[in-house]
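Margin note from the TA: students keep mixing up input and output lines. Inputs are the sequences; the output is the structure of the whole complex. Example:
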Amino acid sequence: MTTTAPVEVERPETGERSDIDLGWNVVVWNDPVNLMSYVVLVLRRLFGYSVDKATRLMLQIHNEGRAIVSSGPLERAELDCHRLHGYGLWATLERA
Amino acid sequence: MTAPFVLVGDTVTVRLTEAEVALLRQLPALLAGVGHQVGDPAAQRLDYQPHPDDPDAATAYADMLGDRLERERRHDRMAFEASLVGEAMLDIETADAWLRVLGEARLSLAARLGITEDWQPDSRSRDPQIIALNYLSYLQDALVDALLGGVELEG
């Protein structure tokens, strides 16, 4: 199985938003209550991930405390975040 | 024991006892009451902040979203309530509403019980809230199992 680990990038610290949207990561955090099978179903439902990919992300959330589940422009990332909140998953955004 | 949920094509058939229906009928009111008391841990758990370290972005997000999440939750609760009978047939959209209502109820109960560590159902407990949480965990797991047999993707 291949993995697609996020790549660390340097980004300018200007304190202002860049004209170029470098993109945002949607992070899901571990919580003690949501069922593992439920998290897999939600990731498949919202992002169309395969069973393997959704399970791998779920395990990363469970074992490492968090995982990046999607990335994109701010508007898209915020919508993803909102949909995850709708399913009770603890999701936040960070710059990619 | 008969499975409470079975997916057949695009339909989830539901089979619940009267006692189960009676317990589940309490969930919409439980969820509608979240946050009515000051410092309700359930309200804190269900209040999401996608930009926890960026007040400006948080404000922009809140302005954009408005009360959309709360409206969607109300819609889910109504769909759940309207379809909650002992034997029912749910389309996938309604089954998803059940999934979210059961999930929110679990998160709310767990928050009020102060569950902060990874948690396994304690079948020996006599605490009514823990018994309810155990039952809702079982039921949500059963619904997830049924739905994972036929995942449909959102656009």
